[in-house]
Amino acid sequence: MKGGRGELDAVAGAAQRLAVLLAAGVAPVGAWGYLEQPVLAVRVAAAARAGERVSDALVAAVIEAPSDRAGPAWRGLAAAWRVATEAGAPLAPALRSFAASLRSFAQAARAAEEALAAPVATARMVMVLPAVGVLFGMVLGFNTIATLFTTPIGLGCLALGVALLLGAWRWNRRLVAAAQPRELTPGLRFELMAIAVGGGASLDRAAASVEEALAAAGLDPLADAAEVESVVSLSRRAGVPASELLRSEAEEARRDAASRAAERASVLAVKLMLPLGVCILPAFMLLGVAPLLVTVISSTLGGFPG
To answer: Where would you find the membrane-spanning parts of this chain (predicted)?
Structure first.
């Protein structure tokens, strides 16, 4: 997968394909065989044919592939499938709704990745500054590499400079990782609740079904619980259908998550200046400038007659 966007697009594509196949009359078990994720699809289809619940089979398949970063999104799909099945909601519209919610956030994740591209590229570029300094000394005719590897001062500069570069590399990685979109399924509980009440379940039964589905899928069963309850209470007081209110809140949650991701991306450009100033520039001085000065001074002193 290629980051948050690619993961969400893959799961959204699977949900959309399943929705189309189910709407065309393909049996739920058979529909899984037409996905582009053959290992996962075969595992789910085989388990379903054996009488296992599809949502449980999907979660088990995700557990068998723990390196797949799309796991939370697949778990969300499992929860959506389970809620729709238990509520008696048509699977195809429920999966279309889930796919649309994933694609909505995938678009926001795409924008965040694009915002991250420039500062990440800058961080990678400045990491080569010390090597440029060494090569610059060689171009000027000074054997700075020999100074680095054969003199006590050079060895000290080499050890400290490499340590600073490693520190900068790890620091940059942590900063970039912290700026990546963290939520693959924002607003999931709102979306699941909308699916449940759309199938005709009572609000209390829908809430219980959603909590059970989240727990069975290995997701936090209490995530956004208070917020969803607030929307349900508003629906009861206003006497309006809860499904539209819930989907509106789900969209708002996705917008908020996208906004936070964009904010982290914009702050990253500033934060990356810290390892540049604290580690990379001193490493440049130690590996590029200091050996050059030592070589020049040694050459100059060696040129005087004894």
So the answer is: 126-146, 152-172, 272-297
Distance CA 62, CA 116 (A): 28
**pLDDT value of residue 212:** 92
Tell whether 256 is covered by a domain.
yes
Higher pLDDT, 11 or 180: 11
Structural domain that includes position 151: 91-305
Q: Work out how many domains the chain is built from and give that number.
A: 1
pLDDT digits (tens, 9 = 90+) for 53-84: 888 888 888 877 654 567 888 888 899 899 98
76 in any annotated domain:
no
* 10-26: burial string, b at 16+ Cβ within 10 Å, e else: bbbbbbbbbbbbbeeee
Distance CA 169, CA 177 (A): 12
pLDDT over 50 at 2, yes or no: no
